[in-house]
Amino acid sequence: MMAHLDKIERAAESIAAYAFTPPGLFTNAVLSKDPPTRLIRDIAPSERALFTLVDGTPAASKTHIPAELKRPPGEATMEAYLQAVEKLNAIYPSEGVADRVAGLWMQRDALTASIEVYERQVDQQRLRLEAMAVDDDIEGDVTGEMLQREQARVEALEVQIQAKQEELRTR
Questions:
Q1: 101-114 burial, b if ≥16 CB within 10 A, otherwise e?
Q2: Distances (CA, A) of 45 to 85, 87, 149
Q3: Of 70 and 130, more confident
Q4: How far apart are CA 78 and CA 171, in angstroms?
């Protein structure tokens, strides 16, 4: 009897040494007998709008797209995009989205504040430049070179403002 068991063991080892391809899709479908009830599940709360009718049409098709987002790309404001993402995330929650949106709101606020600072600086520079021009007519102390330097500073600040506004638009 031991001889037969040894022979069977060697045959099993020999078969195990062969590299068989794993069963394919068809083989698994034929061999597995999962009950159909395993495919059925309750809908998630976020999917409920897909199966709800409002006035004879699916509620999911009633999603309101803000008018600002219907503009051509690049013309919609960052606020409109962030609000749309917040609304969408409220309907279809996704992990980490709320944190990213909050970070983008903070970044937008910081950029807006820095733009306001630069705009105030430009206004102050303009006033100083105008005062220098008036003083030049009266006193003659202000040189053309001083006016050019001041004008260059104003233009540099305006370039910074435009860069910040473009950065705010592209985010």
A1: beeeeeebeebeee
A2: 18, 15, 63
A3: 130
A4: 7
